[in-house]
Amino acid sequence: MTGEPRGHAEEVVVTACPDGPLLVRGPARLVDREGNEIERHRATVALCRCGGTAIPPWCDGTHKVNGYRSGDDDGRSTAREAGTGA
Ligand code: FES
Questions:
Q1: Whose CA is nearest to atom 2 of ligand 1?
Q2: How far apart are CA 60 and CA 6, in angstroms?
Q3: pTM for this prediction
């Protein structure tokens, strides 16, 4: 076991990478703020959450140089506080 989350072929798994992007695995449909489909070409995509990418919504690695820190809990307490998490 590698520690990587594994899912079924139809399951969507979103992984918050420490100090980095959200990895989206599985058949998630991505849309922009107007609801327009964002085309994806990979089974796993990385969504920027540091705000520094030059190619939004995708992570371009800028988080490694802009000092982005996700915090110790990787957003779990925020999800709980908002009532959107487990
Ligand atoms: S999270 Fe990677 S560039 Fe923002």
A1: 59
A2: 24
A3: 0.76
